[in-house]
Design a protein that fits this description.
Number of strands of chain A: 12
Oligomer: homodimer
Strand content of chain A: 15-25%
Largest interface: A-B, 54 and 54 residues
Largest sheet of chain A: 6 strands, parallel
Number of helices of chain A: 12
Radius of gyration of chain A: 26 Å
Order of helices and strands of chain A: HHHHEHEHEHEEHEHEHEHEEHEE
Chain lengths: 340, 340
DNA sequence: TCCTCCTCGGAATGCGTATTCCGTATGCTG
DNA sequence: CAGCATACGGAATACGCATTCCGAGGAGGA
């Protein structure tokens, strides 16, 4: 057993409450000689307060729950870094849950956080639409609703959710701006690698992109695929396979940078040069792109800051607040037209 | 306030212990109709057990502490993914702490974990030698020692530590094998980007590399630098600046892939082609390299598996065990010699 | 000098749960 | 039908700590 406050008190020759007052911030400060005696005893015994017991009586655990789909994905790990920074500032400990895009695991994660009486929860991860997901999601939201009603905080990174704080990336707007920028550069032929059907983030980006195109009289085909490097790879391969040989390849807009990277790999494998034979654009501007060649055109999202802001909103306690994360187009070599 | 077991019991018309027996696995199972009544009441109220209270009485928190230097670094995030997988298997919740390579924050993180009475702790992060670090580290190890004496588990990813479990990457051996492979390929001129002075991992890799070189009569200069992309960038820039123009550049061995990526960026900026004008090799084989061009020669480490194994060792309870993580040389284009 | 107010330690209590211990009711054996 | 074992629900308790309440002692004012 670890050292308890009572043991420290006993060694110091005082009562347990007195030891508590000395060691763990209290409104009352005992006399100097008592303080010293307790400090000495605690030091000698190597006392470390039991956070569980403190949480139980204080009804605050100093814990922050973070839900991500895949911590090895640099999109999420960058967000996690921002959340961590905020947590550090707020003196909170982060509990991490990885869901692998499984709504059931997502639900389980949130329940675990509630079970640990986390002070706040941040959910970074795209949402699903559709029946099956909606059912599980309903239960998840029920839980979160009760959670915030109990004076806890919850924030989502993604589309707004009724009653929760949110940091919402400008998916539609960013994708639309990208489409316009590409159109301005003279590109006319597009294919959207749109991610898995039912995924809100992918759908929004696809919608924003195609809507902007349509406004200028251009249409684009959509090719679904998993929201991963391999998903992008396979989707792109499919596109290339169907391509009439000799034709100029279209510009591929992958709704995610990791998909774009996969698409770039597929292009390389197919012997297509970027951007001469095929153009590629992504979304997110993950840090990996910094040294990726050729430079990938993308839409920048302040991921670290988004994590930070979400964690701050979740821990502010002032009800549900929403913020938008600005998306900015970043044009790089991968969409360069020969003319310009 | 959240729903308590007593409330559930009251609604179900039974006593609190009975409700406890129904809802949270006990040796005794109440009568079927009682079970049903309790289940129904719990469902109706949306009862979620208070993990803090359970931890207090069970003296097991089902928490696993993970210490990393930088969660946004794909080296650590990959390890974290492995730890998460193990935690999921063991039904543990991961608490994440980020230290930014600061020994003091490392100490604070471990104390927080102990304070939360984590069942196990995994420390992924290179260790420091030197006086200042040794002092803080001593206190850290004192804490961990008491921790494991209390029937808890602790594992380190990195050089072995007395009394703790460890997953130790073959730094020396891997770096030596890389040196030999490069020598075999005909390369003779090397510079080691050795990371920050005092960092054990960097030192080991540097030592393994130079020792293998020396065995075959080759010596190499060392250039220190931060263990990051920018650190590699700056170190490489320094090397290039000192390079007599027209000379063939040496092969740069960066003790970390992220440094190697930085070095590659510096090379590109300096107008040096890889591998024609300068060769570059790294260490770790982080996932980012998969689609990096040119393909970077490196030493592969099974990072995800290392995280997994460390977490398993930490939670096995069978005293301190050690494993070695195999390092395998991966030759790619970045060290191709024109002759071969 | 006496009374009041304030200070400061300690005893008691409660946080939510698991578990030990008891008492009662039931089933079974002889 | 008597006697005993067994099953099952509830009261009590402990986990480690913060906090409220109380009592004793001291300081200050009248």
């Amino acid at each position: 057993m670890a050292v308890t406050l009572a043991q420290v008190a006993s060694l110091a020759g005082v009562s347990q409450p007195t030891a508590s007052r000395v060691l763990n911030g209290s409104a009352r400060t005992p006399a100097p000689h008592v303080v010293e005696a307790v400090r000495k005893a605690a030091d000698q015994l190597g006392y470390i307060a039991n956070a569980q017991a403190q949480a139980l009586v204080r009804s605050s655990s100093r814990l922050l729950g973070l839900v991500v789909h895949d911590i090895a994905d640099s999109y999420f790990s960058t967000i996690a870094a921002g959340v961590e920074r905020a947590a550090e500032e707020r003196q909170l400990q982060v509990m991490l849950a990885v869901t692998g895009r499984d709504p059931l695991r997502e639900l389980a994660a949130v329940q675990t956080f509630i079970s640990h009486r986390a002070d706040a929860v941040v959910m970074a991860g795209s949402q699903w639409s559709g029946k099956a997901a909606t059912d599980v999601r309903g239960r998840l939201l029920d839980n979160l609703e009760r959670f915030v009603d109990d004076k806890h905080g919850a924030a989502v990174i993604g589309p707004r959710v009724e009653g929760l704080s949110a940091v919402t990336p400008e998916n539609r707007r960013g994708a639309g701006a990208l489409a316009n920028a590409l159109l301005d550069a003279g590109t006319r032929d597009f294919i959207v690698l749109s991610g898995p059907p039912g995924l809100v983030t992918g759908a929004e980006r696809t919608a924003g992109f195609t809507a902007a195109l349509k406004r200028r009289g251009v249409t684009a085909r959509r090719v679904p695929g998993d929201l991963s490097r391999d998903g992008g790879f396979e989707a792109a391969q499919q596109v290339f396979a169907e391509l009439p040989s000799g034709d100029v390849a279209p510009c591929l807009f992958a709704v995610t940078d990791v998909m774009a990277i996969g698409a770039a790999a597929a292009a390389r494998l197919a012997g297509l040069r970027i951007p001469e034979d095929v153009q590629i654009a992504g979304f997110d501007d993950i840090v990996t792109l910094r040294d990726f060649t050729p430079g990938l055109t993308t839409v920048h999202l302040p991921l670290e800051e988004m994590g930070y802001r979400a964690a701050m909103l979740a821990t502010e306690g002032a009800g549900a607040r929403s913020e938008r994360a600005p998306a900015t187009v970043v044009l790089r070599e991968s969409t360069l037209n020969p003319g310009s």
